């Protein structure tokens, strides 16, 4: 399908900056952009399954944006004004769409209000195009269910390889990669932004826990859950992050984390020379799997680029307790306890819902085994969480994770005076997850057509540095290419 409008401007692969320039020069309207994405979705989504549900009000929102652009003072509108965005299906929208975390159990439920991040997007004038598909219950239903699958959405597909897209923010990554939308929102508990961004050749930012509001998000654990952007470029991701970051009275963690939000937002850190003087740690433990492969050779070349751009690489570092972190079960134990408590609280807060507790969800699945593919995939994680009781085991697990983070990643960063670590793909997600630390992943190459990324992780509140580093790397390499054109057959 042609990616050009009648005026000859390509929307495919267009960044937020490109679209805003086209709006200002009257080459494009928001309605034309939304129309383009709707056609893209109609053509590709039956196979890719990245979009779960479309917003019936998207075109009217586009018309409103076009009207505002004509009537408001130049420069008074936000960078996301009139830009279509896709929202992961576990993030509440108080509109005509559902919020189901991919499960039929929540179909028809009524949320009390927009999620905090959605309110901020609406205030900025962004167009909510629809809901992205996802791994059901944010990949916390069953160990047997495939990544990127949900009962409502089916099996999402990676547009580069036509196989697994990784999860749980699978649809958000599929959709921006395949140009079904300009930008998207995902959520991460452990790897759910970083991993799908890695394999779908897009940019993902996993923010410090509490930097962005989780109010109105179907939860797993408040200790690790975070909402962040999945986009095609670092610049777009920075614009989305600065729009959604900040205090929300419905999420107490945002009050403490608001100290990390820089005055003037994150776009000011999009510096081509952002790598200069940065100290980057290389933990070789995470490079062992790549061996003598294209990925391994490419990453070594990227190290040269990082040095050429002025970064100092501190190589052969070790996290002393890495084996204990990787093999330990504290994260798993705490997650099971927190999921039951926080999901029950979320469900109780709904205006209307077919289910009001985790026990209800489990019962629903048993009552609708064919709908939810229960016999094939089961619901072992839901059952594990429902069986939790008491707090002693939870408290021990939480204290242990805090100890592991303090004596592991934090000690590594502080002792070596690092600005960030640089690691391949999403291998570092658990380290970042258990401590609530941020990470940014950027496309880094392709191994026989399969994308892989490079991840920069840092201490809490270091998003500004990570964006500087990631943007400078991205601009020096410009690795990302759109998925191959192929005839999509259902």
Automatic annotation (TrEMBL):
Residues 32-426 form the Amidase domain. PANTHER family: AMIDASE, C869.01-LIKE PROTEIN, PUTATIVE-RELATED. InterPro entries: Amidase_dom, AS_sf. It holds the Pfam family Amidase. This is Amidase domain-containing protein. It comes from Glycine max.
